[in-house]
Amino acid sequence: MDTPELIQTTLEVTDGVALIELRNAGRRNAWNGRMAGEYRWLLHHCDERADVRAVVVTGAGDDFCVGADFRELESIGETASYERPRAIPPAPFPDRADESLRRNHMYPLTLSVPVIAAIQGGCAGAGFVVSTYADFRVVDGAARVSSSYAGLGLPAEYGIGWMLPRIMGTAQSAVILLDNEPHSGSDVYRMGWAQYLSEGTGSARARAVELATRIARSSAPSSIAMMKRQLYVDAWREATEAYVRSVSDMDAAVGSADFRRSVAARRKGERVDFRTVEPKEPQT
Q1: What does this protein do (predicted)?
Q2: Which residues partner with 146 through β-bridges?
């Protein structure tokens, strides 16, 4: 299936960076089934495109995403089930995706490209899930971030209780989950949920694009693909298994085109610009 018609998202690719914008006009980018389907398909195609080396996801206007559209929440309450008919058939997982990560909201972790969330304004509920499953986060100091689950009588959704402690530790995860009041961008940066703090309203997007461009330019696509698997799959295995697999990765890397290009450039006192469009090497 090709990318569906984009109604609640937009995509722009510049200098190796794909900018995905969540867009639900008049509803502060509230999340719904249509937006979810479009977002996953855009990630799928960004992963396959040779001209995309990094992805930034953000919200249109003043907010990132304030959570699920209340019209859908009411429907969920009426049926007492999260299961809803899909507005769009889901994009397939990459062939290399480990079985442990083949869960809908973990989709960004299976990609060969980094996904960076740029957070401004309100970020709650479903928006909190989307940004938590990015590889890292850039947040405006004035942003307002809340998991929001406790205020709705809900548990930590979609494996967030597993993911959060791996980002920010158990105690800080408890604060952001159990205290339902919004936390400032400065607070969630201090707590470790966000990795970059951008002062100035609306500045997170520009900072995230700057970081993504730097990664796209200076980091080999094959290295990023292997490192993401090491971070999200190998890191939870026994140390010996992770070590042995890393040595196997090293042996594979020294035979790669990315390695050969880099060594040749260093001999000339130069550095490779990895935004040069070449097919991404398959990773296992």
Answers
A1: Could possibly oxidize fatty acids using specific components.
A2: 124
**Token pair listed for 199:** 């002062």
Joined tokens for residue 116: 């960076």
Q: What is the DSSP string of 93-156?
A: PPTT--GGG-SGGGGGGGSSS-EEEEE-SEEETHHHHHHHTSSEEEEETT-EEE--SGGGT---
Looking at the chain, which runs of residues are DSSP E strands? Answer: 9-14, 17-22, 54-59, 115-119, 122-124, 136-140, 144-146, 183-184, 196-198
> How many Å apart are CA 131 and CA 279, to the nearest integer?
28
Question: 60 with 29: CB under 8 angstroms?
Answer: yes
Phi then psi dihedrals of residue 213, to 5 deg: -65, -40
Q: Which of the listed ranges 86-90, 151-155, 168-172 does the model predict with the highest average pLDDT? A: 168-172
Sort 264 into a burial class: Cβ within 10 Å, 0-12 / 13-18 / 19+.
exposed
pLDDT tens profile 237-255? 999 999 999 999 999 999 9
pLDDT of 73 strictly over 90: no
